[in-house]
Design a protein that fits this description.
Elements lengths: L1 E6 L7 H12 L6 E6 H7 L8 H9 L3 H14 L3 E5 L5 H7 L7 E4 L3 H8 L11 E4 L2 H9 L4 E3 L22 E6 L8 H14 L5 E4 L5 H10 L6 E5 L3 H8 L2 E6 L8 H9 L3 E4 L15 E3 L4 H11 L3 H16 L10 H10 L1
């Protein structure tokens, strides 16, 4: 079977890119011949406009860039895939949809989050719901799609826990901290609430430390806030890190903090649990899939900086509790308790082609 992955990935790696990495790992034994088009890279290579800002990003999603349509169509003709998998159609939505409008090749479109689901239902985007088969690992999104009459299927989360179970790096100074944040530096991810929580924690634990790994559009604003709050000795902003470095942090911090208000999964939580680091998270439809309060993690209701600080203060010095949660977190990953379906994506490919 030949599958063409059209990956319209973001410039900052997030959950949709983690998904694709794990999918390719899971598919290693499936005898699938994967090819891929990374749209953002294609744009750079072909020297289309690379300027970006809030307004231009949204305009690029709506407009159809015909030379880019032609390039995608040429690649499809060159590969001649049995099936096309559309992943993370985020940056050039209508351009990608236009390139697939007339193909007779079956297309599966993976929906990672509510934003993508709403976008493909919007009247400003080229209609795709009649032609595509939609996949998601989110039970909530699956139910919404079924109610809308879309051809949708719930599949298991592709994940490689072995990648995170052990740190392969030698001891590196500066990789330990009380608290760890891994993710994009964006307001929606709760990073500013986390900084305000550390400000409150410092009143009780003057030496409290937080390591922040990631990059994003709000990085300059974050750096200003840390200085304004006089937290530069408590908060270290490390920027982008390789996966082996992230794994090393997982194994040398006491708690991972996952302060996002809304998620459909949160791969970072699965990675942390694989490494045995307890997770503190705000309750939402994504985190509740893998984080059960005081069983394999810690859940916070009421998404405020004060509630986050109170929870961390309550548990951070309790070694017995953290050891119990660490053991339960690893077991949660072993049992794949975060999955709502046993249907593998690669098996779904075969079903699509047999229809």
């Amino acid at each position: 079977m030949k599958v063409l992955l059209i990956n319209d990935f973001a410039t900052i790696v997030g959950g949709a890119e983690r998904f694709l990495e794990n999918l390719l790992y899971e598919a290693q034994s499936s005898r699938i011949d994967f090819h891929r088009i990374d749209i953002a890279e294609l744009v750079k290579v072909e020297r289309f406009s690379t300027r970006t800002n809030f307004i231009l990003d949204r305009y690029n999603r709506i407009r159809v860039i015909h030379p880019l349509v032609a390039l995608i169509s040429e690649k499809i003709e060159e590969v001649k895939p049995d099936l096309i998998h559309l992943n993370n159609n985020n940056l050039f939505t209508n351009t990608v949809l236009r390139s697939l409008q007339e193909t007779r090749i079956p297309v599966v479109c993976f929906i990672h989050d509510y934003y993508a689901w709403r976008r493909l239902r919007s009247v400003i985007f080229i209609p795709a719901t009649d032609k595509f088969i939609f996949l998601t690992h989110s039970p909530d999104i699956y139910q919404k799609m079924v109610r809308q009459g879309m051809k949708a299927h719930l599949v298991r989360v592709p994940f490689n826990p072995g990648k995170w179970a052990h740190s392969t790096m030698e001891e590196v100074s500066g990789c330990s901290a009380d608290l760890l944040y891994v993710g994009r530096i964006e307001k929606a991810k709760g990073i500013f609430k986390l900084v305000r929580a550390v400000e409150r924690l410092k009143q009780s634990i003057p030496s409290i430390s937080l390591a922040i790994l990631g990059e994003g559009s709000k990085l300059p604003e974050l750096e200003k806030l840390v200085k304004k709050k006089n937290l530069t000795t408590n908060i270290r902003i490390r920027g982008f890190q390789r996966d082996d470095q992230i794994a090393h942090y997982y194994h040398h911090c006491r708690l991972l903090v996952f302060p996002s208000d809304g998620e459909t999964l949160g791969y970072v939580g699965l990675e942390a649990q694989s490494s045995g680091i307890p997770v503190v998270a705000f309750a939402n439809s994504g985190t509740t899939r893998w984080c059960k309060d005081n069983l394999n993690g810690f859940m916070i209701k009421g998404n405020s900086a004060q509630n986050l600080a109170d929870k961390v203060l309550e548990i951070i010095s309790d070694d017995v509790l953290l050891t119990r949660i660490s053991t339960a977190a690893r077991e949660n990953i072993r049992l794949e308790a975060y999955n709502a379906s046993k249907q593998k994506i690669t098996d779904m490919y075969k079903e699509v082609l047999s229809w």
